[in-house]
Amino acid sequence: MIDCSTLVAGRPFLIAGPCVLESLDLAMTVAVELQAIARDLNLPLIFKSSYDKANRTAGASFRGPGLDMGLDWLAQIKSRTGLPVITDIHEPRQASLVAEVADVLQIPAFLCRQTDLLLAAARTERIVNIKKGQFMAPWDMQGPVEKIRSEGFDRIWLTERGSMFGYNNLVVDFRSLIIMKQFGCPVVFDATHSVQLPGGRGMSSGGQREFVPPLARAAVACGCQGLFMEIHPDPDKALCDGPNSWPLAKARTLLSELAAIWSIPNEC
C-alpha cells in the first residue's frame, strides 16, 4: 500500500478521476494523463473512480462494473501508474475487501453518519475520506470524526461538497472549510459535486460545470489542503455525473491556476 499520509503531509494534493468506472481503457487514459499533469505541477495525485454508484437518481441508471471487476480494474491502474487509489464503500462488509486495493476509503456524503460503515472503514487502517453530507452543518462533522477516532484511528480527511439549498440545488459556504479544519483533519473541496443539481433533470442529476473554476479557486484561496474533481474525456457522454464533470482536455489549465494560488502563503 502507498502511504498517502506521508505523500500529502503538509502539501496540497489532488483527488481526481472519472465518476464511475465505465471501462478499464477510459479510466487508464484519464489516470495516465492526470498523472503527467500532477507530476509537472508537483501535486500528489490520488486516482478516484467508483466501482458502484449505489445512490443514482433512477434505478435504471448505470452504476458501474461492480465490486469484483471494479477492484480488478483499480488494481491494474494502480500497478501500471504507481498511483494510490481511492474509491467509495457503501456497506460495512465492503470495507475489508476494498482495503486490499484502495489506499483511501471514501464514505459517500449520504452515508457520512452511518456508524457501522465508519467503524468498519476505520478498522481497515486505511485513510478514511468522509464527504460531508449535503444535509450537515460543518460543525456536525465532529460526530463522524469522533466515531472514527473511537477505534483508536486518526487518519481522516473531510470533504466539503456543498449543502442543499432548496430543491435540486446546492450552495457552498466557504466558512465550512475553515470550521472543519478545527477538527485536526486535512480538508478537501469537491469542486465538481458542489456544482451538481441533484435530481435536476428529473430522473438524473444536472450540473453547472461553468462554476467549477471559480469555486475551486475560492476554496484553494480559503486554505483547503486537497481538491477533489471528477474528470472525464467527454463529460457530455459520461455515464454518471457528466453535467458537473470537468473535461480532461481543460484539466491542465485549471490545475495550473490552482497550483499558483496554492503557492501563495495562506493563514486561513
Q: What's the topology here?
A:
Elements lengths: L3 H5 L4 E5 L6 H18 L3 E4 L18 H15 L3 E4 L5 H5 L5 E4 L7 H9 L3 E5 L10 H8 L6 E5 L2 E2 L5 E2 L3 H7 L5 E4 L5 E2 L8 E2 L4 H10 L4 E7 L13 E2 L3 H12 L6
Parallel strand pairs: 1-2, 1-12, 2-3, 3-4, 4-5, 5-6, 6-9, 9-12, 12-13
Antiparallel strand pairs: 7-8, 10-11
Helix pairs in contact: 2-3, 2-9, 5-6, 8-9
Structural description of this entry:
One of its GO terms (cellular component) is cytoplasm. Belongs to the KdsA family. It is found in: Cytoplasm. The protein is α/β, with parallel strands linked by helices and 268 residues long. It has a single domain, classed as Aldolase class I (TIM Barrel, Alpha-Beta Barrel). It is 33% helix and 18% strand. The chain is built from 9 helices and 13 strands. The strands form 3 sheets. Strands 1-2-3-4-5-6-9-12 form an 8-stranded parallel beta barrel, surrounded by 5 helices. α2 packs parallel to α9, α5 packs across α6 and α8 packs parallel to α9. The protein is globular, with a radius of gyration of 17 Å. The two termini are 32 Å apart. The model has no long low-confidence stretch (mean pLDDT 94).
